[in-house]
């Protein structure tokens, strides 16, 4: 007999509060005080943004990176530096944050969505290759929820077709693919320090310059700063092409220095908790835990598992409601629908009153273009993972999922 569900008046699985903790403390305050005492908050005059990037570069083993005002800004900067311009196509994942595509459209380029793999939810290299056209200029590979994309396959396709590769690492700090940190494999790696990411500076972002080339670095650096070339005491304000002001302030840099000291612990804890949850769910009929890419380590920004509704007498919404009643917060999917089903893409209208730049391409955003992505979002449950949770919290999450799955399990046919 299956146990009585809490949603039906039975006992709840989760009877103790989830672990909590403070992300900011004396370390951040000390850095902020020093930033203010410099009497400048401008990154080029102060030492905090520089110190933040120096530390980040050491952690990532890269020679150069550039700070930006957000993850969205970091991706736009990388696209600009990659030479993405009006009429180009950029291939990316339909399961991502809007921030992945905003820079593409601001460059008047056209986002093209490739399908994902059904088990890792990351870009399927075969689908990327199938969507390459004469217009394709770059690939933005989104490492979803801390799980690395299949970078060997993506880099091979990019080399074959001479495309730039930008890694969207907003959700994947310290994630490892075949012994390498994601964000150091493509041409550029983009990170976000918005308040919901592994580390926070309120808002902010970084772009790694993986060529290690000084000229490449100068281009990335300028694109985040109105195309001013600001090196040492020389400043060139000759503007040949358009670029935004996406500068990071000294206050963000200061908080970032202290946050980077916590990053390894945050990522190690999340890595362990994600693996523990997957282990706790193994062999549960109807539950499909997320697959980590081969030879990779995920740092679990969130935990998205799928339901096999052939084995369960429940809709995803009913499953989520039952889990919530057990005291386990979760929601259906990650985003409600693939990015291309948003009205902006359905109407092909990014700038009000015009279909430009979509009109330059015959790209399709019809329902059905990425069937795996649509199915993943319709059949998945998203659980938050926090470094402040305790191992008991993770055990309770797994127990509750197994309890709800057992209740809804279809009778075996004989
Ligand atoms: C958060 C996020 C972004 C955008 O970062 P912001 O700092 O919010 O602009 C881009 N891509 C992905 C995958 C994200 O999760």
Automatic annotation (TrEMBL):
Its EC number is 2.6.1.-. It is an enzyme of class 2 (transferase). Residues 1-20 are annotated as: Disordered. GO terms for molecular function: transaminase activity. Belongs to the DegT/DnrJ/EryC1 family. The lineage of its organism: Bacteria, Bacillati, Bacillota, Bacilli, Bacillales. The keyword Protein biosynthesis does not apply. The keyword Thylakoid does not apply. This is DegT/DnrJ/EryC1/StrS family aminotransferase. Keywords: Aminotransferase, Pyridoxal phosphate, Transferase.
């Amino acid at each position: 007999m299956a146990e009585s569900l809490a949603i039906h008046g039975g006992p709840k699985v989760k009877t103790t509060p989830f672990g909590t903790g403070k992300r900011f403390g004396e370390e951040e305050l000390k850095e902020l005080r020093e930033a203010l005492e410099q009497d400048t908050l401008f990154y080029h005059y102060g030492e905090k943004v520089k110190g933040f990037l120096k530390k980040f570069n050491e952690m990532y083993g890269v020679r150069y990176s550039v700070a930006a005002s957000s993850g969205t800004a970091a991706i736009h900067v990388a696209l600009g530096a990659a030479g993405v311009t009006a009429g180009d196509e950029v291939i990316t994942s339909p399961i991502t944050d809007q921030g992945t595509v905003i820079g593409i459209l601001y460059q008047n380029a056209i986002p093209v969505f490739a399908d994902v793999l059904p088990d890792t939810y990351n870009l399927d290299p075969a689908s990327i290759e199938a969507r390459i056209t004469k217009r394709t200029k770059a690939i933005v590979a989104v490492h979803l929820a801390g799980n690395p994309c299949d970078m060997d396959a993506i880099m091979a396709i990019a080399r074959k077709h001479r495309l730039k590769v930008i890694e969207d690492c907003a959700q994947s700090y310290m994630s490892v693919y075949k012994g390498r940190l994601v964000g150091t494999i493509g041409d550029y790696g983009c990170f976000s320090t918005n308040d919901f990411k592994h580390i926070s500076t309120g808002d902010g972002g970084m772009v790694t310059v993986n060529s290690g080339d000084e000229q490449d670095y100068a281009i990335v650096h300028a694109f985040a700063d109105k195309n001013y070339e600001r090196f040492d005491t020389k400043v060139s304000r000759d503007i040949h092409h358009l670029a935004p002001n996406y500068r990071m302030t000294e206050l963000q840099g200061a908080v970032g220095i202290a946050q980077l000291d916590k990053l390894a612990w945050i990522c190690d804890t999340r890595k362990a908790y994600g693996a523990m949850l997957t282990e706790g769910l193994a062999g549960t009929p109807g539950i499909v835990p997320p697959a980590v890419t081969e030879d990779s380590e995920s740092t679990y920004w969130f935990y998205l598992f799928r339901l096999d509704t052939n084995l369960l007498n429940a809709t995803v919404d009913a499953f989520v409601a039952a889990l919530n009643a057990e005291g386990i917060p979760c929601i259906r999917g990650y985003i409600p629908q693939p990015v291309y089903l948003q009205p902006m893409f359905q109407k092909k209208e990014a700038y009000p009153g015009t279909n430009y730049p979509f009109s330059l391409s015959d790209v399709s955003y019809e329902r059905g273009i990425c069937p795996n992505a649509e199915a993943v979002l319709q059949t998945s449950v998203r659980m938050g993972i926090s470094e402040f949770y305790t191992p008991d919290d993770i055990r309770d999450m797994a127990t509750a999922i197994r309890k709800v799955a057992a209740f809804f399990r279809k009778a075996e046919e004989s």
